[in-house]
Specification:
Blueprint (H helix, E strand, L loop, with lengths): L1 H11 L13 H12 L3 H14 L7 H10 L4 H10 L3 H14 L6 E4 L2 E4 L4 H16 L1
Antiparallel strand pairs: 1-2
Length: about 140
């Protein structure tokens, strides 16, 4: 599996380091929704992606997440409050419920209408999915 992930990352030009462990991403998902509410979602998600996949950092640890928050231009203190109060827990729970209902079992998964594209995919596959859905919409 790691060999396939590494090849996909190489094909897409994404950073991918040596990872020996998988870490719980729940808190990063909650912080991600908070970051999106502050219009810093892309910066935060990119920072978490690099930390996890390229640098092998444990994104389940609060100090790591707070450092990533700062690197994305967000308030460390606000992020600590979001984590301690679990302010976005219900939203992430709702996302997980929707994912289960839709039968999503891998990330990333792109869903357009009834079609799914599972896993990191090259641009032409995303374009094909969009074109397919555009054709279906016209029918």
């Amino acid at each position: 599996m790691m060999k396939k992930l590494r090849k996909t990352a190489d094909d897409l030009g994404l950073p991918f380091g040596e990872r020996e462990r998988t870490y719980n991403s729940r808190m990063s998902q909650e912080l991600g929704l908070w970051a999106e509410s502050k219009n810093k979602g892309d910066a935060f998600h990119h920072a978490v992606f690099r930390a996890y996949f390229a640098d092998g950092k444990n994104i389940a640890k609060v100090p790591v997440l707070l450092d990533l928050t700062e690197s994305a231009g967000l308030s460390r203190e606000e992020a600590a409050a979001v984590i301690s109060t679990r302010a976005f827990k219900a939203e992430v729970d709702a996302d997980w419920t929707l994912s289960r209902e839709m039968g999503i079992k891998a990330v990333p998964t792109v869903v357009m209408r009834q079609e799914k594209l599972v896993g990191a995919q090259p641009y032409d596959m995303l374009e094909r999915l969009m074109t397919l859905n555009k054709i279906k919409k016209r029918s």
